[in-house]
Design a protein that fits this description.
The protein has 506 residues and is an alpha/beta fold. 44% of the residues lie in helices and 15% in strands.
């Protein structure tokens, strides 16, 4: 695989210390609130990267931290602790807040088909490790005590800006919030390794340490957890571009000072998702979540499709119009796959090998997921059997994670059940709701394309529901209505007929 490396500033062949084994660390969420869809873009692209590396045949050992202590509202060790801020907002304890939003984060991930890393580590479970890490830095002369806190001395590092390649003055774009000076620091780039009771006396979580009762700084937790679970050499470190400075810059400085040798060879960063007013942020108040998208009738995987159509190193602007286009394309792709029969023909090894090679070349060129999706459309045009096409689509979706085969199978089964129910009803002299009856004013002049497999499937489902109601199988009728609603299709029953329309935003 060729992958852009923030450290070298170029696309290069991705190599690991141990061939066939990838040690991968991803910065996890600070669990003081729901993740917004901008946060989730980074985790989504990291998920695709992990999937692709496994698809290539690698064993991937991925670790993610959960920041449940120590992350301040400024990345420069200033401001209020985010966890304490969340606890105050909801009148709960910090650990109650952490537990609730950790669960919420992984629920969102599951909806987006983001695999949970094999190893997930809350920062609060590694306090002793952080204390030991800080003590080594003090013993080696890379840290100092001042004002009750312990600071890392950035002047002792030979190339502090190795990750950014710029002077501090040029890094404003990468910093989340403006920095206010800490009078205890010897140098402007120094950062806190351990806070004591001399700072933030209202901090709820504190632990005894050689330097007093306190808690770790944010930057130390990722280094400590990575070294503990993945060893002294790390192949791949991931995060959003706003992590580059100062968070990842500080991680490199403290980790290499602690270890005495180069630490991580490859750095992967995902660019911002912007809304029409700029970068998405929780500080703006109302923000976009997966649940909000669902409430508007969107399948969360339509958002995944939306992200995969763009390149991870480019800013992506979100709008509901853009999501509408992605949702429509995603539905049509599923409908086209649903129109294929797994019973027609057999898998074609030559076809599978060709598409696997093309996919490895396309997506393996700096994680070009848009080209990966393009290959799916090329596949559908192949003069191959239905079963062969479905087998290839299933293989490629191991990386794309769009649940294409599962959703196509559900749609196909619904259409088949509808066809069977409609036939049985007609044979019994029933009045099952036909496509023309179920349509939205479907006299042929309403603009609805009944040659579209998706429209045909919707109207077939409505016919099946009508048959179920006539047979007094109300549970089945309710199930079909709920299934359609989940796809953004809303039904209106009248004494004469049932009409349908797409929900808001659809």
């Amino acid at each position: 695989m060729k992958l852009y490396n923030t450290l070298s500033k170029k696309v290069e062949e991705f190599r690991t210390k141990t061939p066939g084994l990838v040690t991968m660390y991803t910065c996890g969420p600070t669990v003081y609130h729901f993740a917004h869809i901008g946060n989730l873009r980074s985790y989504l692209m990291e998920d695709v990267l992990e999937r692709f590396l496994a698809y290539e045949g690698n064993e991937v050992r991925r670790v993610m931290n959960i920041t449940d202590v120590g992350h301040l509202t400024s990345d420069a060790d200033t401001g209020e602790d985010k966890m304490l801020k969340g606890a105050r907002r909801e009148h709960k304890t910090v650990m109650e807040i952490a537990a609730y939003y950790t669960e919420a984060f992984f629920i969102d991930c599951e909806k987006l088909n983001i695999k949970k890393p094999a190893t997930v580590v809350p920062a609060t479970s590694c306090i002793a490790d952080f204390i030991a890490f800080v003590q080594v830095l003090l013993d080696k002369g890379f840290a100092y005590e001042a004002g009750g806190n312990v600071y890392f001395d950035a002047s002792k590092v030979k190339d502090y800006y190795c990750l950014t390649g710029h002077a501090a003055e040029a890094l404003k774009v990468a910093v989340r919030e403006d920095v206010s000076e800490d009078g205890n620091k010897r140098g402007k780039n120094d950062f806190v390794l351990w806070f004591t009771k001399s700072k933030f006396d209202e901090q709820e979580l504190k632990w005894p340490s050689p330097w007093g009762l306190g808690y770790p700084g944010w930057h130390i937790e990722c280094s400590g957890i990575s070294v503990k679970y993945l060893g002294e050499y790390l192949d791949l470190h991931c995060g959003g571009v706003d992590n580059i400075f100062p968070h990842h810059t500080n991680e490199i400085a403290q980790s290499e000072a602690y270890l005495g040798h180069p630490w991580c060879t490859h750095w992967f960063h995902v660019h911002h998702l912007n809304d029409e007013s700029g970068k998405m942020s929780k500080s703006k108040g109302e923000f976009l979540t997966v649940s909000l998208l669902e409430s508007k009738g969107y399948d969360p995987l339509a958002y995944r499709y939306f992200c995969l159509e763009s390149h991870y190193r480019k800013p992506l602007t979100f709008s509901f119009a853009a999501l509408d286009n992605a949702a429509k394309a995603y539905k049509k792709l599923i409908a086209r796959l649903a129109a294929l029969s797994p019973d027609k023909g057999a898998p074609d090894e030559a076809l599978s090998a060709r598409y696997r090679a093309d996919f490895l070349a396309a997506v393996g060129n700096d994680l070009n997921t848009a080209l990966g999706i393009t290959l799916l459309y090329s596949l559908l045009k192949e003069p191959a059997s239905d079963a062969a096409k479905l087998a290839v689509a299933a293989d490629l979706d191991r990386v794309l994670g769009l649940s294409l085969i599962e959703k196509a199978a559900l749609l196909r089964a619904s259409a088949q059940a509808t066809a069977g129910a409609g036939g049985a009803s007609a044979a019994a002299g029933g009045e099952a709701c036909t496509g023309s009856e179920a349509g939205s004013g479907s006299d042929g002049g309403d603009g609805v394309d009944r040659g579209d497999p998706e429209v045909a499937a919707i109207e077939a489902a409505i016919a099946a529901r009508a048959a179920a109601k006539k047979a007094k199988n109300y549970a089945e009728a309710d199930r079909i209505r709920a299934e359609l609603a989940a796809r953004g299709i809303l039904l209106t029953d009248t004494p004469e007929k049932t009409t349908w329309r797409r929900g808001e935003g659809k």
